[in-house]
Amino acid sequence: MLNRIALLVVVVLAAALAGTATASPTMAKPNVVQVATSAGQFKTLVALVKQAGLAGALSTKTVTVFAPTDAAFAKVPKATLAKLKKDRALLKRVLLYHVVAGRVPAAKAVTLSEAKTLEGSSLAIRVTGSTVTVGGAKVLKTDIAARNGIIHVIDRVLIPAG
């Protein structure tokens, strides 16, 4: 009887350990879109990225995103947001103006004077004391890591010229 109880305990423990051994270690790090979604402060950005059809590309390509918060989008005139939502090509252009190819950590970004965006234009990078601006937007938080890139949080929405 004691042997059966010991065998049952061993079987239960083995089953429990087998279940946990496969779950955590193999979980992949989230991509840029997943990180932005889970952060909770980029709801507008994520919704617009999905509306523009960019979620797939931003989930797989290696990118650096200068991500405006929901508070930054709240500062954009309602007419401008409405125009962006109606014009998918314009929306894509504005969103890609926030994205740079490759990983550009803060330590590298502050050594640059500009960064070429996926929209095609370049964003000016300025460092004044401890303040960093990108395209005139203040960088609030840096180096939020994702599997396929980096997010830097900015305080306003960037609109490309033209």
What would you say this structure looks like, in words?
The chain has 162 residues and is α+β, with helices and mostly antiparallel strands. It has one domain: Roll (FAS1 domain). The chain has eight helices and seven strands, in the order ααααβαααβαβββββ. The protein has helices spanning 2-23, 32-39, 43-51, 55-60, 70-74, 78-86, 88-96, 106-109; strands spanning 63-68, 99-101, 114-116, 122-128, 131-134, 137-146, 149-154. It has a seven-stranded mixed beta sheet with strand order 2-1-7-6-5-4-3. Helix 3 (43-51) crosses helix 7 and helix 6 crosses helix 7. The radius of gyration is 22 Å and the shape is globular. The termini are far apart.
The structure class reads alpha+beta
Number of helices: 8
Structural Rg: 22 Å
- What is the H/E order? HHHHEHHHEHEEEEE
